[in-house]
Design goal:
alpha+beta, single chain, 4 strands, 4-stranded mixed beta sheet, rod-shaped, 60s Ribosomal Protein L30, Chain: A, 2 domains
Length: about 220
């Protein structure tokens, strides 16, 4: 019967539309519902009229008319739903583009800790202010896990060379130990003590000696 062929064609078209990209780009909404209702009404009415006109000369029986109308209504509803969806249902909002995390802040090339400000007098013990300076560097090191650091201790020329050498080493090691206690692997830290061998100011003045008493923390 002709209405069966028409129903098959409607279903084929419907499935083809369902797989197209336009379907996937829209949200299901009222247009699809309205199109389905309208398609069902048009399809059912058209099928009944066709059966009456073309079946066996005198028109189709009541059963054939009802079956044709039901089948065409289903097909019309499917096509109407899909067309309504494709034509005027709202488009899906594009997902936001992934935001790349910001790169880690560059590490300072050198941090110089004044011994007078950041260590107890004639001692390798870090003061709270010195600990805060080291903590700030540690946070940056955690964000840059491949970076290694060099910690150098220095003194002025007051006292014996041997004593100053030892004090510079103890201060450098104290900084390293505090960094390790905050989670930095010891293998990333190299320490050296230079005693009074590398002054950056003259040891002839109090100001110069104060500048030379320091611990330098350096990154590549």
């Amino acid at each position: 019967m002709r209405f069966r062929g028409m129903a098959v064609l409607v279903l084929v078209v419907g499935f083809a539309l369902n797989g197209c990209s336009a379907m996937q780009e829209r949200r299901w909404s009222y247009c699809a519902l309205g199109g389905g209702l309208l398609g069902a009404a048009i399809g059912g009415g058209a099928a009944g009229a066709l059966v009456n006109e073309y079946e066996a000369g005198n028109g189709g029986s009541d059963e054939e008319t009802a079956a044709a109308a039901a089948g065409a209504a289903v097909g019309g509803a499917l096509v109407g739903t899909l067309l309504g969806h494709v034509i005027c249902d709202p488009q899906k909002e594009a997902p936001p583009l992934p935001v790349a995390p910001p790169p880690p802040a560059p590490l300072p090339k050198k941090i110089s800790l004044s011994a007078d400000t950041n260590f107890d007098f004639d001692s390798a013990k870090l003061r709270p202010l010195g600990e805060q300076r080291v903590e700030g560097l540690v946070e940056s090191l955690k964000k840059n896990p491949s970076v290694r650091v060099l910690v150098e201790g220095h003194t002025d020329s007051i006292g014996t060379e041997k004593y100053n050498q030892r004090l510079s080493e103890r201060r450098a090691n104290s900084v390293r130990d505090y960094m390790v206690s905050l989670g930095i692997d010891a293998s990333r830290i190299t320490t050296r003590g230079y005693g009074e061998a590398k002054p950056i100011e003259s040891n002839d003045t109090a100001e110069g000696r104060a500048t030379n008493r320091r611990v330098d923390i350096m990154t590549p």
